[in-house]
């Protein structure tokens, strides 16, 4: 019964809990059975809250039995990436510098999940401070891919993607700064959405790159992704970058989800896709053929500045990281070195002991780019390139409704394969970074498998604040294929 429960969608499970057909306690226990069975192998979680989760599930069941509203996610077990503040458990960002940090408040997105009746079962692993593409940079533990335990799950939201894929939660929140939701979703065979910048509040999300970060859902189906967006989207006065709903109203993302879009025009950038592996190119081409069969017109679009996205991103993101991480000084909160001789030693030793290798690398890169004499040569130039990339998307969307391309140039790679070659690792994000630089929404949906039975994701990008249309386009493919129904066989 527990394995059958774990295959249910969030929507179906919520309705069954509300109707008394299934109890939230029963479903939550099934999740913790899966965690008990697989977590030692997969390492998706930094912390779990079994006692608290079962107590909350019991409260939801009492509400359902009394005929009360249980919420849009009432009784459904979900997970949260551990760079979002919670009043329960630690908020570590997978870093030794915050290993014992307890937040006095919940992130807005977390608070919205709780208000919707969700049962939060744990906080998931990530690359330290969300800096990485494989979750190998976590300062606390290694997460592996449920489809192949010798491979990475992607990053930085690798823990969230792995937990969803392995049935260790029904849905999860991740954050996406340069592909950190979409890339692990692709590598783990689940659905991952990066909303438009400003669509979901960043309040309570520990900052990496403030002009790039965005919270979004990872789920098994497009429908569950739309459900999660109904809950977390919307204006938040606590976040100055959150967009006013008068300017960009939030719609019901489920209302027209199953209505196909007639006259759909799909944009492709052939020369940009050429660098992907053969299996990835084949799967993307096959997926586009499915859309053609559904009546879509495929149009080639020119985006001449995409080749500069990686360079621009790693200047802008590291510069913002350098500024954001300056607050971890061994004084205000977080790790403090023992018995320092003076304040300078408090600052330098606390940071040296608390930050991992990749975080230090990005802080140094960003500090250099912002330093006197180099600001114009690097940071200012990167901002200009960012505007050119935005212009490429604006021009492309005048000709098409969406753009389709791979999420990652490869399927999941071996643990340790790229960790000692930063440039090679950074190129894992070549197809995802441009959406963050431009602030537009993007989604990854399962679209095939390579010769080793590792998942491949199709990335769909659309204009800003068009998540409703983006989800409908994604659902068109999902409704005619069964890639999203396949589950990994986990072998420890």
Describe what you observe in this structure.
With 492 residues, this protein is an alpha/beta fold. The protein has a domain at 2-263 and 467-485: Amidase signature (AS) enzymes (Alpha-Beta Complex), CATH 3.90.1300. 39% of the residues lie in helices and 12% in strands. The chain has 17 helices and 11 strands. The chain has helices at 2-6, 10-18, 24-42, 50-65, 108-115, 158-165, 182-188, 222-232, 270-273, 278-293, 309-324, 343-354, 357-370, 375-397, 422-426, 433-438, 467-478; strands at 45-48, 77-81, 119-124, 171-175, 191-194, 215-219, 265-268, 297-300, 402-406, 442-449, 455-461. An 11-stranded mixed β-sheet has the order 1-3-2-4-6-5-10-11-9-7-8, with helices on both faces. A hairpin with a 5-residue loop joins strand 10 and strand 11 (455-461). Helix 11 (309-324) packs across helix 13. The two termini are 23 Å apart.
Sequence-ordered SSE layout with sheet pairings:
Layout: H1 2-6, H2 10-18, H3 24-42, E1 45-48, H4 50-65, E2 77-81, H5 108-115, E3 119-124, H6 158-165, E4 171-175, H7 182-188, E5 191-194, E6 215-219, H8 222-232, E7 265-268, H9 270-273, H10 278-293, E8 297-300, H11 309-324, H12 343-354, H13 357-370, H14 375-397, E9 402-406, H15 422-426, H16 433-438, E10 442-449, E11 455-461, H17 467-478
Parallel strand pairs: 2-3, 2-4, 7-8, 7-9
Antiparallel strand pairs: 1-3, 4-6, 5-6, 5-10, 9-11, 10-11
Helix pairs in contact: 3-4, 6-7, 8-17, 11-13, 11-14
